[in-house]
Amino acid sequence: MKSHSNFFIYFFALFSLSLLAQQSARKFGRHEILEDLDYLKNSLIEAHYDLYAYTSKDEFSKNYLQIRNSMTNDSVTPLEATTIFQKVISKVNNGHTEISFPAAAYREYALSHGTLFPLEIAFEEGKALIRKNWSDKDGLKAGTEIISINNLTIQEVLQKIYPLISAERNYLKLAKVELLSFPRLYWQAFGEQENFVVGIKEGGSIKKYKLQSINLIEDYEMKRNEIFSEKRELQLLSKYAYLKPGNFSGDEEEFKRFIDSSFLDINKSNVANLIIDLRNNLGGDNSFSDYLVSYIADKPFQWSSEFTLKTSALLKAHTRKNCDTSNPYWQSVLTHQDGIIYTYEFEAHQPQPKEKRFLGKVYVLVNRQSHSQAAVTAAQIQDYKFGIIVGEETGDYPSLYASQFQYNLPKTGIAVKVAKGKIIRVNGSIKQEGVLPDIRIRDHLLDEEDEVVLGLLKELKGSL
User: What is the rounded average pLDDT for all residues in the chain?
Assistant: First the structure.
């Protein structure tokens, strides 16, 4: 799906832009920001499963007070407000406890002929590499390393961007910079700039280029593709089938129909190998992923070894307003005392009947952009030995604080997403690491070549 469609889908659907856009024109007083800062801190303490799992209480409090004490402006724009709150919540160092990119402000900026940094960047092995060049300098090739921007080293630039992003570690922060896009985040962190002096490493020397900013819509959003992919796809080739299920969200019945028909076609084709692609996948709900896994499982399975929840008044209010309270899962939220952590037991999921399942070899592709439930699903498949994992380490941990719910800050209306649950992967490991592939192949995300699929075919030459 290309550019113009991506611009509207990404910023209207993913970030619920219509609600935010109504607020984009108004400014907030200092007292409103301070009240929401206090509310944010107290609500995180109340609602988060374990606020200090990846940061100490002292570190969180010190950061909060520093940000609160720096609030001197009497008038604050929605963009500035979002940035302030992001700097508080990102200190939790939990990817599922976050405030989203300020989409309404970005849209307003776009419609006022806003401009952006003209290079898209990927991060690999500690280097910032050009992914796409939208500037008028043809000499800047994909894969070229960027050393500096406007006399700041790339690490100094990232130190300004990191507080805008919630993540357990820098590996995931950099994946999210790629996902959200470096030009968008650079704009949020540094504001509009007309020119950029970019230091490039060429051979053994550093060369500097002066680049002009580019029009946000025509020269950026209209020309690019998002890294994440919602596309559902099945390809039947001579020796293997390739299945891309897309995100584990949306219309569940439609998803199940796609999976049903895909496996019907796969089994009719009599291929011996199946590649399931979970790269560039935003995750979603286990009811989707478990249905996919049921077609490759040879025994009953769970999506985690343990799942626990923390109740709170905020979660209960969210549940009553947005959820089916006749469902036993949501009933458990309402019946437990506020602040209590409890285990919720899911029934084992059954495999499809043998005649419907795929019985050949299964390879599951992952990369640093396999997020949330996509990482959990890859770990599930690996732990049950339902398939072989191929690619690079996922950015998200498969044992993680997740199961988000959302509420709004009372004065600014800015949405806050909080992890209410804890998921432990099937094998019980709580190591702070992503899903580690059985066959490791680097996914460059720099060009149109699919290094992972090509690498897998090369690895299995003779058997595929």
Answer: 93
